[in-house]
Amino acid sequence: MFFASDNGSGVAPAILAAMTRANDGYARGYGADDAMVRVRDEIRRLFEAPDAAVYLVATGTAANALAIATYCPPWGAVFCHTTAHIAEDECGAPEFFSGGAKLILVDGPHGKIDPEAMALALEKTGSGGVHGVQRGMLSITTVTETGTVYTPAEITALTTLARAQNLPCHLDGARFANALVVCGATPAEMTWKAGIDVVSFGGTKNGCMGVEAVIIFDPAKAWEFELRRKRAGHLFSKHRYLSAQMEGYLADGLWLQLARNANLMGARLATGLAQIDHVSLVHPVHANMLFPEWAIGTHARAEAAGAVYYPFPAPKGRERARLVASWSTTEADVDALLAVLRG
């Protein structure tokens, strides 16, 4: 009954096997390995972007912060949702790596930026001339931090506002696969065709040991990213182990299979929770992340039974939690938690 995070799951066997194969013999370092060539070609194929620059790093924070730093000047503003991961969970890394860019938090229901609020933020920012930060870029997260998913049309609505101000757009896709299978879109439709310039394409939360791809659709920005990655200490010497993970992840559509299981278990959990009288869901359930609210005393009962998850602040007289299903969550895991919650 482990629902704290999809980070808590192990490595998918096929990915672990790919890393074991990569361990034989020798390989060139720093991204010059043969596997990286194959990974780059496959990502370009999947995203219908033959000229895209593709790089691997080990963490989502590095992927986001380096991508933002490459596109936003130190005096720029990064527009993102109030609950965005870059705002709440990266310890100022985007600001640090960019040399001081300021995050402008834009509200909207259920973790999604409201277009009207975005338009207002764009209008207000940069109006003070040299005395204030200038408009820098837009960053969108999907799956959002509340478990919802932007459709390609919703992404386009926001990027259109940004592009009207000549701003580049970033997509934080730590759970990109989970979002993609919800939308039924292609990777291209959810990214560059919707106005996205740079993507953090996650693997760690979906069965990899620790690898994220940064996909840059304008190859003119590639060299700057390479320099920033090296300067930040995120260029792995034994890069083949990053490449092997990503190659195994993408092989035969494994990345989508793993995400589908996580989402299916999230849906099973949501269905079961809806049948318990004292439980309600704070946000719509689109993918594999849920925010239930329940009666006082439920935390103690669930934890005593061995359930692992994150309690969240709740209104007086109620308790709230975040539950996340993963690629390895089983129906038995879900049903066991539901049985405990029924109490």
Describe this structure in words.
41% of the residues lie in helices and 17% in strands. A seven-stranded mixed sheet has the order 1-7-6-5-4-2-3, sandwiched between helices. Strands 8, 9, 10, 11 and 12 form a five-stranded antiparallel sheet that branches. Strand 11 and strand 12 form a beta hairpin. The longest helix is centred in the last third of the chain and has 20 residues, at 254-273. It folds into two domains: 13-253, Aspartate Aminotransferase, domain 2 (3-Layer(aba) Sandwich), CATH 3.40.640.10; 255-342, Aspartate Aminotransferase, domain 1 (Alpha-Beta Complex). By secondary structure, the protein is of the alpha/beta class. The relative contact order is 0.18. The chain is globular. The protein has 14 helices and twelve strands. It has helices at residues 13-22, 34-46, 60-71, 85-88, 93-98, 115-124, 152-163, 176-183, 187-190, 222-231, 240-250, 254-273, 298-304, 331-342, and strands at 53-57, 76-81, 102-106, 134-141, 169-173, 198-202, 212-216, 280-281, 289-290, 292-295, 310-312, 318-324.
> Which range best describes the helical content: under 10%, 10-25%, 25-40%, 40-55%, 55-70% or over 70%?
40-55%
The total count of helices amounts to: 14
Main-sheet strand order equals 1-7-6-5-4-2-3
**C-alpha Rg, in Å?**
20 Å
**Top-tier CATH class of the largest domain:** Alpha Beta
How much of the sequence is in beta strands?
15-25%
Low-confidence stretches: none
The CATH superfamily of the largest domain is identified as Type I PLP-dependent aspartate aminotransferase-like (Major domain)
The description of the largest β-sheet is: 7 strands, mixed
Distance between the termini: 15 Å
The average pLDDT score comes to 97
CATH topology of the largest domain: Aspartate Aminotransferase, domain 2
**Count of extended strands:** 12
Supply the helix-strand structural class.
Answer: alpha/beta
Q: Per the principal axes of the C-alpha atoms, what is the gross shape? A: globular
Overall tally of structural domains: 2
CATH-level-2 architecture of the largest domain: 3-Layer(aba) Sandwich
Order of helices and strands: HHEHEHHEHEHEHHEEHHHEEEHEEH
